[in-house]
């Protein structure tokens, strides 16, 4: 009898402990057209959020392409593929970035998230669960476009941030991306970042245009997360493999990132984040149903 009561007490305590751990919010960064600034945005936002006291992990879901490693000058030796194959633990593949952010190198081909054995799934979930509550945000840097490799990550995220620039193909392709997300039944909150504009007003105009078309044709409301102006310091920082927010904290692009941090921290989310575990389970589900 005593044992039984003790066991119940332990169980209740465990559930309460679990509840009190704050859940990680998953923000995926996407774009219709490539090369618009996703990776720079993700890394610099991660650093600014970390400086604001949040704990951040960046998940590089577009590995194989020149990405986080290039912007930060860190090259991963091991990736999620090694974890899936049981050769490394998640802890072992995570890299330390500046300011205490962590980087999780995704697998070099997302086919690896397809046809996982039950044992591989259990192993991944067990390790992934240890990350729950460790981080306030996981920022997922994805590839451009509407390939299922990308869409599956976006469908699994709590929030999708779509980045676009004033170039017409970028505007059109961002609409195309949002359309695919809506058609696939996305439940993520969709927000726009207009990058490389000449001034705020240009950014607002572009936002209003896209939001109007999305509302009219897809019947979905999207929000503006922020505007970042074109800034030569961005490419100067990229050449030095240093994040611009650390190299040039007072430059225009850094100010754009800081105002986005304010928006993120002050806009109360429309719905609670699903946490790391739900993100992993949804990724596995989407990858295994679209192949
Ligand atoms: N606000 C900005 N001002 C000036 N240049 C910028 C700005 N944002 C991005 N860039 C330029 O755009 C280039 C591409 O950026 P980045 O690699 O972040 O794009 P991406 O969307 O991740 O590309 P890909 O689709 O290939 O992954 C950068 O090297 C930088 O020179
Ligand atoms: Mg990129």
UniProtKB/TrEMBL annotation:
The keyword Nucleotide-binding applies. It holds the Pfam family ParA. Keywords: ATP-binding, Nucleotide-binding. GO terms for cellular component: cytoplasmic side of plasma membrane; cytosol. One of its GO terms (biological process) is negative regulation of cell division. GO terms for molecular function: ATP binding; ATP hydrolysis activity. Coiled coil: none annotated. SUPFAM superfamilies: P-loop containing nucleoside triphosphate hydrolases. The keyword Methyltransferase does not apply. This is Uncharacterized protein.
């Amino acid at each position: 009898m005593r044992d039984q009561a003790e066991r119940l007490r332990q169980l209740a305590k465990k559930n309460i402990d679990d509840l009190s751990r704050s859940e990680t919010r998953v923000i995926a960064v996407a774009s219709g057209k490539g090369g618009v600034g996703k990776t720079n945005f993700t890394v610099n936002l991660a650093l600014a959020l970390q400086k604001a006291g949040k704990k951040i992990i960046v998940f590089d879901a577009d590995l194989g392409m020149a990405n986080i490693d290039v912007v930060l000058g860190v090259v991963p030796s091991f990736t999620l593929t090694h974890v899936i194959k049981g050769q490394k633990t998640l802890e072992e593949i995570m890299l330390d970035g500046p300011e205490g952010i962590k980087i999780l190198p995704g697998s070099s081909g997302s086919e690896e998230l397809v046809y996982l054995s039950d044992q591989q799934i259990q192993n991944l979930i067990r390790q992934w669960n240890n990350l729950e509550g460790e981080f306030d945000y996981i920022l997922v840097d994805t590839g451009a476009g509407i390939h299922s490799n990308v869409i599956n990550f976006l469908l699994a995220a709590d929030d999708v941030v779509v980045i676009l620039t004033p170039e017409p193909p970028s505007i059109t392709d961002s609409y195309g991306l949002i359309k695919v997300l809506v058609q696939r039944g996305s439940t993520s909150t969709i927000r726009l970042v207009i990058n490389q504009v000449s001034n705020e007003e240009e950014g607002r105009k572009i936002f209003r245009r896209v939001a109007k078309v999305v509302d009219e044709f897809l019947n979905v409301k999207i929000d503006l997360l922020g505007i970042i102006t074109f800034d030569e310091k961005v490419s100067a920082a990229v050449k030095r493999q240093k994040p611009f927010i650390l190299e040039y904290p007072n430059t225009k692009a850094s100010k754009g990132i800081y105002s986005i941090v304010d928006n993120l921290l002050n806009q109360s989310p429309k719905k609670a984040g699903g946490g790391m575990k739900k993100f992993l389970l949804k990724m596995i589900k989407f990858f295994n149903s679209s192949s």
